[in-house]
Amino acid sequence: MSRIATTGEVLQLIRSGEATTRAEIGRVTALSRPAVTHRVNELLQRGLVVEDAEGPSTGGRPPVRLRFNASGGVVAVASLGASRTQIALCDLAGGVIERTDLVIDVEEGPDTVLGLVMDTWEKLLEGRGPLAGVGLGVPATVEYARGRTESARVMASWTGVEIPPRIAKRFPVPVLVDNDVNVIAMGEHRDVYPDQDDLLFVKVSTRIGAGVVSSGKIMRGALGAAGEIGHIPVRDGGGVLCRCGNLDCVDSVASGTAILRILRERGRDVETLADVTVLVRQGDAETMAVVRQAGRWLGEVIASAVNLLNPSVVVLGGDVAEMFQPLVSGVREVVYQRSTQLATRSLKIERSRLGPGAGITGCALLVIDRILDEV
Length: 375
What we know:
The chain is about 40% helix and about 20% strand. The protein is built from 13 helices and 14 strands.
């Protein structure tokens, strides 16, 4: 490092394993021995680092190794969905300590929903601590700097709500809020594709949204609106009016809500996506065709994103993508046809491996990265 390394940068060296002894830290950072000692002692006092078993000796007394202390604090997280919310406590490495799922209709509003979430955190926190921060993922466009929901996909009553101050009144720690698909993308990237620094995560559920990882970091855009692919129109969508006021947005023709609507219009008795799953497994030709066409429409939009962003992997998540292989096949068919040869040369299109748990992991990482970077 060419400049004077901060305590936070020393912590990152220890977390990553790049430097785990005082001597190694000195070599990597060019800090003097007293400066290294000062920073390490600060981390030890804060409980973020512990001295581990003695390392191998190269002559003389073996060096004491330093290890990041994941149990040095607790992070409270929640990933809100349209009807189901995942709530958990995580350690400082993002590992889940305890988790519970609640069936909550987010349209009941922020007062009711946040109240239930905070009550649950309080119960989970009994006998644990210290609480280091809070992370929340919501199905809405979020002005990240303020934690303000600007355009809610499935929770219109939340639009314009600044969430962190509401939570900080009860839990006076750093509170970070982001779009639900962004936090899922973070979880998939860190846990499944840590060596892929350019990743596009597309959530296909009640609605459609995307999270973009570029050069290893979430791309949020100027006001947090990056990744809103649900309102990109497709060709030959049939003139369907989207809730945004435009016609044939991919959200209005290829989401779970759209698939149910189309199948009902064609005489299929389907109330939920589970009913669609039954028909797909039975090999119902009409249902298979509808689901695959939804995949093709989605593939149109993803193909444009692939040409623009050149990700190394596209991850399809959300209950629709996870349930329906014909939709994934439709996406692959169109993306490989319509994206450039260079952009698809090594492109992988995969279904999510983490499933719903990715949101919990991403919310934890959102908070951990912030609080540890500020050490």
